[in-house]
TrEMBL record:
Protein name: Ectoine hydroxylase
Coiled-coil ranges (or none): none
Keyword Iron: yes
Protein role: Involved in the biosynthesis of 5-hydroxyectoine, called compatible solute, which helps organisms to survive extreme osmotic stress by acting as a highly soluble organic osmolyte. Catalyzes the 2-oxoglutarate-dependent selective hydroxylation of L-ectoine to yield (4S,5S)-5-hydroxyectoine.
Family: Belongs to the PhyH family. EctD subfamily.
Catalytic activity: L-ectoine + 2-oxoglutarate + O2 = 5-hydroxyectoine + succinate + CO2
The entry's keywords: Dioxygenase, Iron, Metal-binding, Oxidoreductase
Superkingdom classification of source: Bacteria
Entry cofactors: Fe(2+)
Length: 294
């Protein structure tokens, strides 16, 4: 919905100077037609779990590939590699589908991108890709947030017509920092307060403080929707809506947790200028190449 070719109506105002009421979503959750039975929960919950998306041989292959990336000395000089704030260990590596031929091939497979296409009802492109590492004992979690709030505010994503696919490369237990989600919260957009600092991504990728809901917001959402947790064996995957409220706690167990994280955006939802930032984030965080994959 636009006023002109260059002005997009902001239906999800955020990063405001004063508190704003929650916004009930008017955009669809499922834009296309669901064919895969395992996606049946996506409409009501805002997420679906896919068991054994990767087989054991593929898990071993991609685990070795992600270890290779983390051990690459050249990448330690690259902005795409993010270091934990306290432990100084690798937290994330972005744009992995460009750093790894194996992950690039995975992204193009119809069994992978097809999950997103069913939900989004169009061809898709990669908005963001990364590997997340949560080491044992000192792995830092991610505070409660909606991805769409950040992608809207700082990248210029007009509508919540994007999904994330998190593919587990390690077993996800209830106690090693596995992702928590509020089922149904994808229907509610929570505006956040505070102006976006310049180059905010340099801090937020380690620890986000701007663009996160208040404790009152979280309490209200949790009371309304409850909290579920994604657990499962290595090779399982979680597909979730861009606006669902989610987060993870620290990992103080000996069991590390890592995953390949792919964000698919509809080609009909291409980025515009950021809605609440002076400049868009680097393209390795929010791609502005809208070429369909496949």
């Amino acid at each position: 919905m636009t006023l002109s070719d260059n002005t997009v109506i902001d239906r999800y105002q955020t990063r405001t100077s004063t508190p704003r009421a929650h916004i009930e979503r008017t955009d669809p959750t499922v834009w296309g037609h669901i064919e895969s039975p395992e996606l049946a929960t996506f409409e009501p919950y805002g997420y679906s779990v896919i068991d054994a998306l990767l087989d054991p041989a593929e898990v071993a292959e991609f685990s070795a590939e992600t270890r290779r990336l983390a051990d690459d000395p050249d990448l330690w000089l690259d902005e795409r590699l993010i270091i934990e704030k306290t432990s100084r260990r690798v937290r994330s590596i972005f744009e992995v589908h460009k750093l790894s031929d194996a992950i690039a091939d995975l992204v193009r497979q119809s069994r992978i991108r097809g999950l997103a296409e069913q939900i989004l009802g169009s061809e898709v492109y990669i908005h963001q890709s990364r590997v997340n590492y949560m080491p044992g004992f000192r792995g830092a979690g991610f505070y409660w947030h909606s991805d769409f709030e950040t992608w809207h505010a700082e990248d210029g994503m007009p509508a919540p017509r994007a999904v994330s696919l998190s593919i587990a490369l390690t077993d996800n237990y209830p106690y090693n920092g596995s992702l928590m989600l509020m089922p149904g919260s994808h229907r509610t957009f929570v505006p956040c307060q505070g102006e976006t600092p310049a180059e905010h991504y340099r801090d937020s990728l380690r620890e986000q403080q701007i663009g996160v809901p208040t404790q009152d917001d979280i309490t209200k959402l949790a009371s309304t929707y409850g909290i579920n947790q994604f657990t499962g064996a290595a090779g399982s995957a979680l597909l979730f809506d861009s606006n669902i409220m989610h987060g993870s706690s620290n990992n103080i167990t000996p069991f590390p947790r890592s995953n390949i994280f792919l964000v698919f955006n509809s080609v009909e939802n291409a980025l515009v200028a950021p809605f609440a930032a002076d400049a868009p984030r680097p393209t390795y965080i929010g791609s502005r190449d809208f070429t369909p994959i496949g």
